[in-house]
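Protocol step 4 of 5: obtain the predicted structure for the target chain.
Materials: sequence only (see below). No template structures provided, no constraints applied. The aim of this step is simply to have a reference model before the mutagenesis design in step 5. Sequence pasted as it appears in the construct record:
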Amino acid sequence: MSSDPAAGAADAQQAAASSLGRSGLRCSSITVDVDTEGLAAPVGEAASVSATVSCTARLSDLALPGLGGSKTLSATMVSAVDTWAVRGG
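Step 4 output (structure tokens):
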């Protein structure tokens, strides 16, 4: 976790690539979209940040060998920002 938006985005990209690699899923492309607007909320106000990871994988890797085409798989996770922590956003 990072309280700095740029560092958080870099950390999220690295974590996504590492996690997908360990899972055995081979992605032809990985994108990570991080929403850090919650870090700009005033201390004392409830806020959250989120990250959406998308992986484009060949259908032959997901289902049957020889099957053509690709599929983009996406997932989003949301995390609460500590209400009373100093924020870097």
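Step 4 remarks: The two ends are 14 Å apart (CA to CA). The chain has one domain: 5-79.
Proceed to step 5.
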